[in-house]
Structure formats: structure tokens, C-alpha cells
Amino acid sequence: TTVYMYLIGDTVEEAIYEISVARRLAHMQKATNNIKKESQQRSKSSTPALGEAAIDAANSLELQQAPVSKLLVQGKGDGELVPNDDLWSCLFSRAAKSQRQQQQPVVVSTELEAEVGRHLRAEAAENRRG
What we know:
Order of helices and strands: HHHEEHH
Number of helices: 5
Oligomer: single chain
Helix content: 55-70%
Shape: elongated
Strand order of the largest sheet: 1-2
Distance between the termini: 75 Å
Number of strands: 2
Strand content: under 5%
């Protein structure tokens, strides 16, 4: 069986995927650091590579760390408990990213600046004539 995953840009699903990837990478980094520390204590000659086992461990580590009672709501309206930070990130991370991008200074090419300047001077000359 082949399972395909697709994401639609600028959606909650994409934000959930990004959170998942960030957590997986953090767990993998943590596991890699632990393995490096252990190997340095044993031998200083080799650095272990990340393998499929490390990826699988990172995928399941978060579920292992939290008890099921903290992941699911029991009773009427059963569902998954989501931390507030994750919820806000899923709903508003795109808006925050676009706001940060808008606040970045705009770099204008010298050619474009010259063209706009020429247009404004020509328009000013026409207004003086007319």
C-alpha cells in the first residue's frame, strides 16, 4: 500500500504539519545529542549517523511522553486536547509570518528608482506647462 500526503498552502493543515516537523526535528536533535554524549564517553573516534530508527523514535517520542488522559477529552464532545500555543500557531502563524514579512525593509533596484524618478519629473513638467 502506498500512502500519499499532500498539503494545501496557507491552511491549518499546513500549520499542523509544520508544527509536527519542528517537533520531530527537535526530538531527533535531542536524541542525536544524547547518542553523541554516550559515544563520546565510550569512544571519541566516531559520530553516529541518523538512521530510520532515529526517525521512528522521534515520531513516537511525543506520544510516549504524554499520558493518553492528557491527549484526549473524555465524555460529551470527545476529542483531542491541543495545547494553546499549538492552537494559536495553527490559526494565526500565517498572519504573523506575513506581518513580519511586511515589516521588513523593501529593497528597490536602482533601475526602478531611476524610472520612477524620470516619470515623476516628466509629470511635474507637464503640470507646469498645463
